[in-house]
Write a structure and sequence with these properties.
Helix content is about 0%, strand content about 45%. It contains no helices and 11 strands. Strands 2, 4, 5, 6, 9, 10 and 11 form a 7-stranded mixed beta sheet that branches. A 4-stranded antiparallel beta sheet has the order 1-3-8-7, with no helix packed on it. A hairpin with a 5-residue loop joins strand 5 and strand 6. The relative contact order is 0.33.
């Protein structure tokens, strides 16, 4: 059974950085798609970033381009990271990672195609 566990959230000042981790268990990360989403109360969950292993595609929402990245650690192949820099108060949200497995698409799935979700981690950007 595929499981996702996010970590790394917290309180950070505007302009600061955080790195979220999404540890994937139950599978070996081949032919997958991993997406990062965020949600604030009263609003729909929105896509932040994603990666498709098959096509190598990585996508970023316009609101985070140039500030968020998806670094990889080859020593931790079952962990996907979201590096967040130059954080703004409007980045405050609960962040979720999601997985679709197996996934052979060149591009990332759309939100309703993700079958597996983590429990979420709170990110608060405030002075």
């Amino acid at each position: 059974q595929l499981q996702l566990v996010e970590s790394g959230g917290g309180l950070v000042q505007p302009g600061g950085s955080l790195r979220l981790s999404c540890e994937v268990s139950g599978i070996t990360l081949d032919y997958y798609a991993i997406g990062w989403f965020r949600q604030v109360p009263g609003k729909e969950r929105e896509g932040v970033s994603c990666i498709s292993s098959s096509g190598g595609a990585t996508n970023y929402a316009d609101s985070v381009k140039g500030r968020f990245t998806l670094p990889r650690d080859n020593t931790k192949k079952n962990t996907v990271y979201l590096q967040m820099s130059s954080l703004k108060p409007e980045d405050t949200a609960v962040y979720y990672c999601a997985a679709e497995y197996p996934w052979y698409g060149h591009d990332c799935p759309v939100i309703y195609e993700y079958d597996y979700w983590g429990q979420g981690t709170q990110v608060t950007v405030s002075s």
